[in-house]
Every structure is written in structure tokens, then in C-alpha cells.
Amino acid sequence: MHVWKSLSRLLAPTLLLPLLGAAPPAAVPAAKPAPAVTRPSKQYSVEQFMGSTVVMAPVFTSDGKQLLFSSNASGIFNVHSVPVGGGKPTALTRSKTDSIRVVGVFPRDNRFLFERDKGGDEQTHVFVRTPDGKEKDLTPMKKGVAHFLGFSRDDSAFYITTNERDPGAMDVYRHDAKTYARTLLAQNDKGFGVAGVAPDESWVALEEAVTTSDGNVWRYDVATKTLKNLTPHTGTASYRVGDIHPVTGELYVITDDGSEFARVVRPAKEAGKWEEVEKADWDIIATEFSRSGAFRVSLINVNAGIEVRLHDVKAGTQVPLTQLPAGMISEAIFSRDEKQLAVLLETDRSSANLYVQDLATKKTTRVTDTMSRELDSEDLVEAQVVRFKSFDGMEIPNLLFKPHQATAQNKAPAIVYVHGGPGGETTRGYNDFVQYLVNHGYVVLGINNRGSAGYGKAFFKADDQKHGKDPLRDCVEARKYLASLPYVDGSRVAILGGSYGGYMVLAALAFHPDAFDVGVDVFGVSNWLRTLKSMPPEWGAFRQAMMQEIGDPEKQEAMLKEISPLFHADKIKKPLFVVQGANDPRVLQAESDDIVAAVKKNGVPVEYLLLPDEGHGFKKKKNEAEVDRRTLEFLNRHLKPATATAPKP
């Protein structure tokens, strides 16, 4: 996936994770730098990399015979179907302008639900598609956002959340599965996040983000229209919904209260207490039941990767997932009859594919073939987990990608890549853009600076109210680490990032103007005052949580100006490439327009690519290819001046 796409959609929500997401554990030693060996490696064009397909959002049809998923095989995401036994996927939607994400399949027939916005503006509507190919907008609002929440336990209805009543609050509506007639189920006056509906529809689970690292789970009683905080606590602790048991209605919660890492708990017999269900030495980021509750699957964020645990709930045992190739599983979905499990599996050197496993026989079938046929995975590289000590001794984890051709005799230029967030994470898995850069001779260090998810709550909180300072200094120290590697030319190092990572690029160039040689900013924040004030209203209470972490524009104007690159653009003296989506609702186009104009006044080389049909992230292959190509050309011009040529198709 693209460098500025969230690699795990299951991480906690953050302001600037683009769309389509404690001290470091001492038991995991830092990896040694890659040995300085070389091998012949073919160089590929961006078109060859774009030959791979991204698939996501799998869901079984009601009879379990087909798997629906979204795929960008056509150049833009559309819904496809494929038999669970394998075969050629069939396109069910054929949009040429706006990406479509499948979100649900009707339990008793072949209708399905999908979401679509316009040009990446995130004003999402929910549509139904019938077997005859007709599509109907179930949320025909003139202005607002809608999302599918799930089907009722008895299959007679489904739930959709919208902010049409109040832009700052997502209410829950119950839609009749036959007529689509709707009734208001829960009015969300507090603007909390909506997590789920109880099987008997008597209550709705809501999530309150007090800060980005502190939160509560609330119960909204449908009959009385009252709210109850189910997770009162002292100190900073995250509480969020894992799942609601589909039969008993028992609430399973993910929390880090009293521990460094998130674990799964459920209500104990003693009122107000919690019973331990599952824990790990890392964060459990998701847990979900099969339809009857016979199985529960959990995803664990382990050392920049994701591990899966499948539980047989009745037997109380963990079921090994066998006959699957080695790799990282980022999604796991049960069939309605609980006989099959679909997973999305990828490696550092191969794009994500969908596999279907028969849970009884363990027979496993790969049902997609997404890797570009023009790419040889042997020419791509594995990521290494490495750590270095930052300016204050804090250990910083990273993923290091070393080109095959880089040696002590043939030193390569390098890139510090900063993820989105704050609170995102650079994780393992297939990243076509990183592989493209590495394939063209760049060492890439994907930094998980302090404030990144996945390394405990103390590490996650370490950037609060310190943006533009301590986490930025981690990036500066990353350059020093790269320069210490025998195969890196320490005089040619770029910083590159998207979203919050784009802010870090601009901040590095403004506040540490000699630290990097060039910067690539993809829809990054230049003015925190404007970005914080313009956060999308549908984020509700989460808006205040972001201000708690970064700063309050009403109360901390001076501090936010101090850390906003726009007000210090006169200090930027290194070449800059800026990319922006015109429809971006999170980082407005003005953020990029203004920084480009300001830096140009310095006489600094600045290139600007504005994409008229994208938002906060890329949903069209043609745009990805253009950004990839332009980025490589920019880096080559400034870091490889003697050999600066555009890659041949």
C-alpha cells in the first residue's frame, strides 16, 4: 500500500491518518544492520508497480459461496465477487469517478451495501445494490456523513449512523431490511463515537475520547434515552469497545487501564469490576465474534506487525491457523454459518491477497491474485526492525528497507519516512511506494517516533503537547542513525511523509533547516491553528481530544504558532515537493497553497502537485502513479544529480 495510507485500519482513530492505519519492550533486541552484500536486481517502472491490485473489506455472501471485496483493479475501487473455491473475480460495480467500499451483505439474499463519497471529500453516503444491478442511496442528505453500522440480530433490520440532525453528532437509525423505512434508535447528543447495538436493541454502545490516550465506554438506554458511563476510572486509561457478544449481549472491552498494553476484558460478577479475557505482551487492537459467538478472533500489534489469535469460545482453546503462507494478516472475517474464515494476508515483498480457510478441514484457498506479473518478489526487499537511541536515550523503533545494490563501496542516499497520525504507526506489509523507492536505490527508514501506536501507552503519550519538538528530534536523530550505516551516504538524506508525516517534513525543514537535504510533504499541516479549527464536525467529541494532545487554538495560540511551519517558512532553505488533494477535508488545500507560496519567497526550489479529484489520501491509481513518479524524479534531481533521469517505462 502507499506510504501515506494507513497500514492498519484497526488502529485508534487519529486526526491525520490518511484514508484509502511505555518504554519499548526490552525483550526485543535491536536488529543488526543488514549485511553489506549485493545481488543483481532488476529496476522497475512505476507502471510495473501499479500493475499490482489493492483488495480490502472482504465479506461473505449470505450462502457462504462467494466473497465480496473492494478492489482497485480498474484503477479505482469497485466491488467484486469471487467464489470461495477460487476463480476469476467479477466486477459488481463499475464506478469510474468515485471509489466504492463494500460494507455489508444482506443475510437472506444477494443485496449488498456500499459506501461512496465524492472525490475523496469524506461526505460518505450508504447505498444498496440489488441483484439486478440497481443502486439506491439510502442516505440522500444534501449535506452530511453516513456510515453502515451492522445488521440486527434477527436480520430484520440494519443500522446506519448519520450527522444530518447535528453536524457534530452521529445518530443511529434503524432501517427495515425490506422497505428501508427508518426510525431513530439513538440520538447521540454528546457526539460520542458509535460502536455497536445490543442484540435485543435495548442499548447502544458509545465511545468517548477524553484525550487520544484516555477514553470511556458509555451505554445509551434506548427506552429511557439515558446515558451511563460503564468505565469510570482514575488516571489516564483507554477504554473502547471490542465487540458485543451476538447472543448474550455481553460487552467485551479493550483497555490499557492498569497495564502498559491493551487487553480484552468483560464485566465481572461483582458490579463495577472487570474480568480478564485475553492479554498479550503487546497491544490487542481488535477482537470480534462469529455470528453465534462460537469463535472469537483477535488482532495483536506485535513489533510493527499484526498477529492473529483464533479462539474456540466453548472449548476455551486457541485454534491454530494452519495451511496459510507466512505473512501478516490484517483482516479476518467469518462466514455467516461460521464454517469459513477469510483473511487478508500480505508480506513485505508481496501484495495483500484474500484467503478462505475451511475451519473444519483447514483447507485453504487463495481467491485473489493481486501481485503485478511484471514484478519479481526477489528483486524487492524485506524490512528489518531496528532501534536507535534518541537525544534523551529513549529507544526509537523503526523499519529499515535496504536496496540490494547498496554496499560500503556503493553507498546509497536515504529517506526518513514519517507516518501519519499523530498516533499512527509504520507497520510491516506490502508498501508499493517504499519498494519503488528502494528498488531505485534509496535506503528507507520508516520511523516510529515517540507518540506512535503499538509500543505501550507511555510511548504513545510521549508526544502530547510536544509536537514539533521531541518527536521531531527523533526524526533528526534518525538521520544520524542512517549515516552510521556503512552502505548509506550520510550527505544525501531526505525526509518524506504524508498527513501528520507531512507536517513533520515541513517542521524539520523549518526548525532544523540543516538536518535534511530535501523534503517531500504530502497533504501535511503547515498551520495548526487553521487545521484544528477546521476539523470535520462529524468527529464530534474527538475534536476536543485532538486539541488536548496538540493544543487548543483558542487558549494556546502562541504555542501553536511556534510549532506551525507556516509562521517560520523564512527559515526553509532546502528543496521541497508538496502534494495536495483539492477535496481534502482534514488538511485543507490552503495549508499547502500557503506553505508553497511562503517558501518560494526564499528562492528555494519548490514543486507543487495539486490533485483535483482526491481528498486525504489516494483512491485512484493514476494519481498514485503520478505522485510516485514525480517524487522519484524530485529526489533524483536533488540527491542523485549526476544520474538524474526519469525511470524508463
CA distance, first residue to last residue: 21 Å
Q: Mean pLDDT across all residues, rounded?
A: 92
Low-confidence spans: 1-13, 17-37, 644-649
Please, how many helices? 10
Radius of gyration, CA atoms, in whole angstroms? 24 Å
State the secondary-structure class: alpha+beta
CATH architecture descriptor text of the domain at 381-639: 3-Layer(aba) Sandwich
Q: What is the molecular shape?
A: globular
The biggest beta sheet, please? 8 strands, mixed
CATH fold naming of the domain at 381-639: Rossmann fold
- The helicity comes to 10-25%
β-strand percent reads: 25-35%
Give the C-level CATH assignment of the domain at 381-639: Alpha Beta
Instruction: Find the count of extended strands (DSSP E, 2+ residues).
Output: 36
GO molecular function, one term: serine-type endopeptidase activity
Protein name: Acyl-peptide hydrolase
InterPro entries: 6-blade_b-propeller_TolB-like, AB_hydrolase_fold, Pept_S9_AS, Peptidase_S9_cat, Peptidase_S9A
Keywords: Acetylation, Hydrolase, Signal
